[in-house]
């Protein structure tokens, strides 16, 4: 489990190291002509300076250090600045900055078995330095592999659209924020063991695979045409019904069933035709 440490400031230690180094130079220069003891003191001062200098560490903003003492986890330092720690500690640098992962475009079958292409963009960062350092081998590679697995699982769990599954509550194409939320939760569940925090996950590319893209486009166009025709027919029937009622209520003309059928047929052709109808004037009577 992660433990946060706050080590002592390293500025005093830096001053001591500089003083020991100056003393080492002074005693070494003095000992060349006077006594071997000065040389020994100079060597001791130099070694102490190097030893204390090893305990100094600089942590940049949004970075951290994981400290170990002969294989035992000591803690993590997340503050930035110059610090002094036990020189015998070993440290591992871990960045706490947010990173983008642009996943490669994957070809996978959706819930209905249709091959699709899907890619995502993920924003993530390290939240638990202990898990990132010790629970997985390389947390960056772990993020890439588990992200790909999560995207594949998401694509296989939902249909691309509702052309084949009319009762699908969520589809990849129309799911929007709900699909993104499901993806974020899937990634969080998979990457929490590595101490990774998912900040955002969005689908960046979604399309049918090239081998069926043309057929699916024609199917979508046919569905749109049928839906549009249905609306046109519904409107035309309403207009014809209104016209017959108005003619009857206003006593404009008396029509028998045969003339009503002819009138309905003509109005439906005019209202539902793709091109404008060409009028034909009847110069005779209604029945000629």
Automatic annotation (TrEMBL):
Where does the record say this protein resides? Membrane
Q: Which UniProt keywords apply?
A: Membrane, Transmembrane, Transmembrane helix
GO cellular component term, pick one: membrane
Instruction: Give the transmembrane region(s).
Output: 12-29, 35-59
The residues covered by the Band domain are: 54-220
Which SMART domains does the entry mention? PHB
Q: Which InterPro entries match?
A: Band_7 (IPR001107), Band_7/SPFH_dom_sf (IPR036013)
Pfam families reported for this sequence? Band_7 (PF01145)
Gene3D superfamilies found in the cross-reference section: Band 7 domain
Q: What is this protein called?
A: SPFH domain / Band 7 family protein
Organism encoding this protein: Chryseobacterium rhizoplanae
């Amino acid at each position: 489990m992660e433990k946060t440490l706050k080590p002592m400031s390293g500025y005093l230690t830096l001053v001591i190291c500089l003083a020991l180094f100056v003393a080492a130079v002074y005693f070494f220069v003095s000992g060349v002509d006077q006594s071997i003891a000065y040389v020994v003191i100079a060597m001791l001062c130099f070694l102490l300076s190097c030893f204390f200098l090893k305990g100094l560490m600089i942590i940049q903003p949004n970075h951290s250090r994981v400290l170990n003492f002969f294989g035992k986890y000591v803690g993590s330092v997340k503050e930035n600045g110059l610090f002094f720690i036990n020189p015998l500690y070993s440290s591992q640098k871990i960045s706490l900055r947010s990173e983008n992962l642009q996943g490669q475009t994957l070809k996978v079958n959706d819930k209905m078995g249709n091959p699709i292409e899907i890619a995502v963009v993920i924003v993530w960062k390290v939240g638990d330095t202990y898990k990132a350092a010790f629970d997985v081998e390389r947390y960056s590679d772990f993020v890439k592999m588990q992200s790909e697995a999560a995207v594949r699982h998401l694509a296989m769990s939902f249909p691309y659209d509702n052309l084949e599954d009319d009762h699908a509550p969520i589809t990849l194409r129309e799911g929007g924020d709900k699909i993104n939320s499901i993806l974020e939760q899937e990634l969080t569940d998979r990457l929490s063991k590595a101490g990774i925090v998912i900040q955002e996950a969005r689908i960046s590319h979604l399309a049918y695979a090239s081998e069926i893209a043309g057929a699916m486009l024609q199917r979508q166009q046919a569905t749109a045409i049928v839906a549009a025709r249905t609306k046109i027919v519904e409107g035309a029937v309403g207009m014809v019904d209104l016209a017959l009622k108005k003619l009857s209520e206003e006593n404009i003309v008396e029509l028998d069933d045969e003339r009503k059928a002819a009138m309905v047929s003509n109005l439906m052709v005019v209202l539902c035709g793709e091109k404008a109808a060409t009028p034909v004037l009847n110069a005779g009577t209604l029945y000629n």
